Amino acid sequence: MEAATRLTTPEALRPPRRRRRKAISFSSSDPETLWGDVLGFRPLGGRVRAVRRLVTIVLWTLLAIPVQAALLALPGRLHVGFGRFYFRTLAFLLGLRIQLVGQPAPGRSVLFVSNHSSWLDVVVLGAVLDACFVAKREVGEWPLIRVVARLGRTVFVSRTRTGTKGEAGAIRERLGQGDSLVLFPEGTTSDGGRVLPFRSAFLSVADHARVVQPVSVVFDRLGGLPACRRDRPLFAWYGDTDIVTHFWRLARRAKSRATVVLHAPLDPAAYPDRKTLAAACAEVVTESCATLRQNRPAEPLAPTGATRVVAA
Question: pLDDT, tens digit, for every residue of 98-150?
Fold first, then answer.
């Protein structure tokens, strides 16, 4: 009876005294700001990883610049192969694995038309395609990056409807010389969760391309796991986010993967106008990106109308 009484007393029903007398304090830094993201409470391993990647990327770029400059002065197309090797090494240093589905169109003067969500698209496509890029004019003003872009024979445009029309002559000239180009007809980057409408004005140069090949790019793995909607903004570079902040956030993470789907090449002469061609490219790119974002395997697609497809 005495033991039972002791068990039912109010003191026995009280919870054990908490050992922690001071409440847990969290960081007051704003994770959405630059300094909050860099100086906030983060795993030490992520910071070390980011610094290591930054240093090795800068060193590799400084080493590759004189090599590419020398190859540009030599006859032949050795500079094209080295450019691809540079981007493949860059992807490796970033911890970015690339999965390629489909085959690039054989030959030269190919206009690759791709969706665009980040500066990472340039690294990924540069690693798998023997092609130069069409980029906005502001890229030619960024420190160090402008040197890499010019050595890669990038074509700079203003990214506006009227400006692109005026600069189309330079793009047509490059296609006429046998160069293959990568074009982003969305005109800007997206949040990674959708494909923006393709602007037909960007495809006004397609008449000088031998073939047009739609390309889908989706970043579908992060840390070895399937990327979900929450992870899309980590890869996407859009809005007011500066490139330093975006690189730091991404460089802290573990290995990631990008999947590139090369769809069936199209004959631009088989389409009545550039709007129809833009719609055909957008159709397959949008459908394939939606499949990849659902973490399902994607295959190269052909737009409606099989007679418009050029055999690769």
Answer: 999 999 999 899 999 999 988 899 999 999 999 999 887 777 677 778 888 88
Q: Is 214 helix (H, G, I), strand (E, B) or coil?
A: strand
| Domains of the chain, residue spans | 98-246+254-299
User: What residue type is 191 in one-letter code?
Assistant: D
237 within 8 A of 192, measured Cβ to Cβ: no
Amino acid (1-letter code) at residue 144: L
Q: What is the DSSP letter of 273?
A: S
- Identify the CA nearest to 204 among candidates 185, 221, 224: 185
Q: If you average pLDDT over every residue of the chain, what do you get?
A: 81
Contacts of 222-229 with CB under 8 Å at 24 or more apart are 222/253, 222/254, 222/256, 222/257, 223/253, 223/254, 223/255, 223/256, 224/254, 224/255, 226/295, 227/256, 227/295, 229/193
CB atoms within 10 A of CB 79: 19
The pTM score is: 0.80
Q: What is the dihedral of CA 6, 9, 13, 19, to 10 degrees?
A: -80
Segment 138-154, tens digit of pLDDT: 776 777 788 888 888 88
Q: What 8-state DSSP symbol labels residue 199?
A: P
